[in-house]
Amino acid sequence: MEHQFTVEGMTCGHCEKAVTQALRGVDPQAEVRIDRQAQQVQVRSSAAREALAAAIREEGYRVA
Amino acid sequence: MEHQFTVEGMTCGHCEKAVTQALRGVDPQAEVRIDRQAQQVQVRSSAAREALAAAIREEGYRVA
Ligand SMILES: [Cu+2]
Ligand SMILES: [Cu+2]
């Protein structure tokens, strides 16, 4: 399933990597695309939306 | 010796860690203090100033 999140606080490539790895922690197969300027994170994953959002939040970013 | 660098491009804690680790790559004993808002990196190290600056640059940050 395709999930789209608005994520605030990603300021650099390290942040993109941190968010990607957090999502892969929930689902190692997750496909992640990030548009940092637009604050958009797109995730193709079979995991529950709330589990993905929680992983982003636990990494220290705000999911709008 | 105490070295002070003005470093541009550090936007988050990951950047601070990356710069710190780059400096420790040159001198594992280096003591590093970073004031990100002020763009200041202070390094206590016996390594040559240019080696420290080069490590910061190679990590992708601008040393002014
Ligand atoms: Cu960052
Ligand atoms: Cu950063």
UniProtKB/TrEMBL annotation, chains A, B:
GO terms for molecular function: metal ion binding. Gene3D superfamilies: 3.30.70.100. It comes from the Bacteria. Pfam families: HMA. Residues 1-64 form the HMA domain. This is Copper chaperone.
